[in-house]
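[Meeting: bench + compute handoff]

Bench side (C.D.) handed over the final construct sequence. Compute side (W.E.) agreed to return the predicted structure before the next meeting so the bench team could plan truncations. Sequence as handed over:
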Amino acid sequence: MIRIEIRRSGKWTDDAADEFEYLSKCAQWKELQAVVVDYKQVGGDSGGCGGGLVPVVELVDSSAGEDLNIGRELIRLGHAREARIVTKEDGGDD
């Protein structure tokens, strides 16, 4: 399981967004797999969700015969980094 986060400055770069669009086949109506790897508890006003559990997913493209994990590819290309997963034992909410 891998979680990714923004590599720099708290905002995705235009290049990173372009690469994500390319890798995820945005607007091409191609299938990707969204593998649910966890659920995260969110607060009351998180993007209009009203709080509750939100799935944490990995996006995988299997169209070329081999699975391509989009998060891992963004890390390999230098657009993202692996996020540290904080567990309850570490004092976090996960």
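W.E. noted at the follow-up: The beta strands are 4-6, 33-42, 52-61, 68-69, 80-82. C.D. will use this when planning the next construct.
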